[in-house]
Amino acid sequence: MRIKLLAVGTRMPGWVEEGVAEYLKRLPAEFSLEIQEIPLAKRGKNPDIRRARQHEGEALLKAVPRDDLLVALDVTGKSLSTEKLAETLGGWHNEGHNVSLLVGGPDGLDPACLEQARQRWSLSAMTLPHPLVRVLLAEQIYRAWSILQGHPYHR
C-alpha cells in the first residue's frame, strides 16, 4: 500500500525534513508514505481567500492518483485513535488500496476536496502548524504499521 500525503506548502524547515525522513526510512516498501508538496496560492495585500483556496484545491485533486482512496484532513473530521487508524489502514492494505491524504493551506481545504473525500479525519481540535502535521502523520502511520506487525514500538 502506498500512502500519499499531498500537502499545501513548500520549503519546510530542516527539522521537519529530518523528522519525516526518520519515519519514512522505518516503513517497509509495502506500506510506504510519500509526501508531495503543492505550492501555496499567491496571496497579496487584499487576498481573495476563496479563490486561493480553490486554486490549491484544484492542484491537490489533480495530484491524486486515479484509484486512490481520498481522505481529507480537516478540523471538522472524525477523530481517530491510533488503534483505529491502524485498523483502517490495515483493512485498506489488505484490500489492495492506495490512499491519498489531503492537507490544505493556511485557509484550509477547498469545499471540492471535502466533497470528494471518502473520509474526513481530524488530527486534533487544536490548530496545528502544517510543518508539525507532516511529522505527526509520518509518526502515526509508522505507529499504525507497528501495531499491525505486533512490533513493540507502540508500547
Automatic annotation (TrEMBL):
It is found in: Cytoplasm. Keywords: Cytoplasm, Methyltransferase, rRNA processing, S-adenosyl-L-methionine, Transferase. SUPFAM superfamilies: alpha/beta knot. InterPro entries: Alpha/beta_knot_MTases (IPR029028), RlmH-like (IPR003742), tRNA_m1G_MTases_N (IPR029026). S-adenosyl-L-methionine binds at residues 73, 104, 123-128. It catalyses: pseudouridine(1915) in 23S rRNA + S-adenosyl-L-methionine = N(3)-methylpseudouridine(1915) in 23S rRNA + S-adenosyl-L-homocysteine + H(+). GO terms for cellular component: cytoplasm. Its EC number is 2.1.1.177. One of its GO terms (molecular function) is rRNA (pseudouridine-N3-)-methyltransferase activity. It comes from the Bacteria. It is an enzyme of class 2 (transferase). Specifically methylates the pseudouridine at position 1915 (m3Psi1915) in 23S rRNA. Homodimer. Belongs to the RNA methyltransferase RlmH family. This is Ribosomal RNA large subunit methyltransferase H.
